[in-house]
Automatic annotation (TrEMBL):
Coiled coil: none annotated. One of its GO terms (molecular function) is enoyl-CoA hydratase activity. This is Ketoreductase domain-containing protein. Belongs to the short-chain dehydrogenases/reductases (SDR) family. The keyword NADP applies. It is found in: Peroxisome. Its main location: other. Keywords: Fatty acid metabolism, Lipid metabolism, Lyase, NADP, Oxidoreductase, Peroxisome. GO terms for biological process: fatty acid beta-oxidation. GO terms for cellular component: peroxisome. The chain holds residues 1 to 342 of 1123 of the full protein. Residues 9-199 form the Ketoreductase domain.
Amino acid sequence: MSDLRFDNRVVIVTGAGGGLGKAYALFFGARGASVVVNDLGVSRSGDGTSTSAADVVVEEIRKAGGKAVANYNSVEDGDKIVETAMKAFNRVDIIINNAGILRDKSFARMTDADWDLIQAVHVKGSYKVTKAAWDIFKKQKFGRIIMTASAAGVYGNFGQSNYSAAKLALASFSSTLAKEGAKDNIHCNTIAPMAASRIPPLLLTNRHPTITTTITITTTITITTTITITTTPSPPRTESIMPPDVLAALKPEYVAPLVAYLCHETTKENGGLFEVGAGFVAKLRWERSRGAVFKADDTFSPAAVGAKWGEITDFSNPEYPSSVTDTDFLSLLEQAKNLAAN
Ligand code: NAD
């Protein structure tokens, strides 16, 4: 297969000032696309703003002979990012919803602000950018969208209840857009990436438990003060933990090929969810047990559920539903009737 190109395509990459977003922006820029490099220039927890992150990436793309413009809006103002693309290039073809931050805390310590900010940046931000381009995509009968989930969203992860809720929301948002967009050649896929960037791979985030330190200060006039400090240290820097060969494989650059493949005009994949990182790409899907059927009468009790728990959780002969219509209620009703007749 000759390498796929993106000439005449306009790509918006959100959060493209660093990490994975930067890798995507450079990748598309080197393959003929015009790139809108969006970045608000915030810290990992969403504080501050800066224009330099986006500017540096634009400069790098242009120096290599590519076409790029910067945008410094928050993804929460997604319409302004799409406006930048329309002003500069007069079209939009591909959106990579990548911008993200973390506010990791155990659920007991989570505040409303930690919860709301994560939903606002990840879920509302992806919604706002995508919504602003949706009619353009429909009119031109072409659009490719990537949502960025996380293994934390798929499997859950200690200290990331806000983030995991937002990340899995994006996967189901994507499944619905895939269904709504298919007739207009709008495809939406989701990735759960893993890369050694500022938002560290999950295998590292599990290694920063809360530490409680007790310091006892005794002064000469025998006053004793005890101070207890509770801190959640930043995750250790990836470089200090990973062996060099693993670090090399975890480069953000090794997530870009899947993202670009999913966004190409010849790619049929739509509505998929992929884990990608360190040279590994795999598709995820729902698996359902064959389940158990109960008589729909007052014999359907908690004890009856318990009695069939083995059947309910038996995955030896699974199904793989991908749509709400993949449940054959007529056949289930028929089975229930037969039970009732026995
Ligand atoms: P990163 O921190 O290196 O880059 C994120 C970029 O997004 C930053 O440059 C930041 O300024 C920008 N940004 C943040 N909030 C923004 C906003 N409101 N509007 C515009 N820009 C904003 O992070 P990364 O590791 O490259 O992660 C990129 C995406 O991948 C995120 O959505 C993250 O949740 C997801 N992810 C990463 C990993 C990983 O292993 N790195 C794992 C799972 C998911």
